[in-house]
Amino acid sequence: MDLLEPFSSRVDLREGLVGTVAHRLSRRLSDLRGLFLDEQARAEMVALGDPLVYEVFVAPAPESEGHLCHGVTVLHPGRVGDEYFMTKGHYHQKSGTAEVYYGLAGTGLMILQTRWGVWRTVDIAPGTVVYVPPHWGHRSINTGEVPLVLLYAFPGDAGHDYGTIESTGFARLVVADNGHPSVVENPRYAVEIPP
Ligand SMILES: [Fe+2]
Predict the structure, then answer these.
(1) Domains of the chain by range and CATH?
(2) Ligand 1 centre distance from Cα of residue 92 (Å)
(3) pLDDT score of 191 more than 80
């Protein structure tokens, strides 16, 4: 039996996860082509400095059955047109696996949706625990003025399917309406055909 040594890391609200960290993934606006409705606004922002949208700090838990992958996402504040900065969003490749998110700093929303167009939003703030049940795709959105910092944990063998969301989008967008977040229909959303 392979016995993994116990380990710990530490959350720093500015630095993300520090200490025992396997890797750090950064997404700039140039990495997020096609994600936002206003592609022209995105391209202009890329040309003007290409802001960092989010970072994921991954603890070194193995991506295999029995383990719990975990880490911290730091999603920066900002907007592309009226649309708030957000993560790409994904389904789990092993669809019957869940995830827990815990809000550490900042404010925002998670949008969750099934592959058949059922969608929900959940507000997230420091102290909020969000349970993402099996089969729900999920994306985080920062609707505040400061970084949205989230701790996450999911089964090590869950895997990620980013491609489906890349092609269908989410059924709803979260946009600023007179300075307040508003959940509106996504005109580009393409529902999948149930199997
Ligand atoms: Fe996930």
Answers:
(1) 20-185 (2.60.120.10)
(2) 6
(3) no
The answer to pTM > 0.90 is yes
Mind listing the pLDDT tens digit for each residue in 117-148?
Answer: 899 999 999 999 999 999 999 999 999 999 99
Stretch (H or E) spanning 154: strand 148-155
How far apart are the C-alpha atoms of 142 and 129, rounded to whole Å? 16
Ligand 1 (ion): which residues have CB within 5 A? 99
Residues 6 or more apart whose Cβ sits within 8 Å of residue 134: 92, 95, 96, 97, 98
CA distance 169 to 50: 22
Q: Please give the distance, rounded to the nearest whole angstrom, from the Cα atom of residue 47 to the centre of ligand 1.
A: 31
9 CB contacts (<8 Å, ≥6 apart)?
17, 18, 19, 20, 21, 59
Specify which residues 139 forms β-bridges with: 111
The dihedrals phi and psi of 94, each to the nearest 5 degrees, come to -85, 95
Model confidence pLDDT, tens digit, residues 43-66: 999 999 999 999 999 999 999 999
CA of 91 to the centre of ligand 1 (A): 6
Three-state SS at 165: helix
Q: What is the pLDDT of residues 62-80, one digit of tens each?
A: 999 999 999 999 999 999 9
Let me know: does 75 contact 152? Beta carbons within 8 Å: no
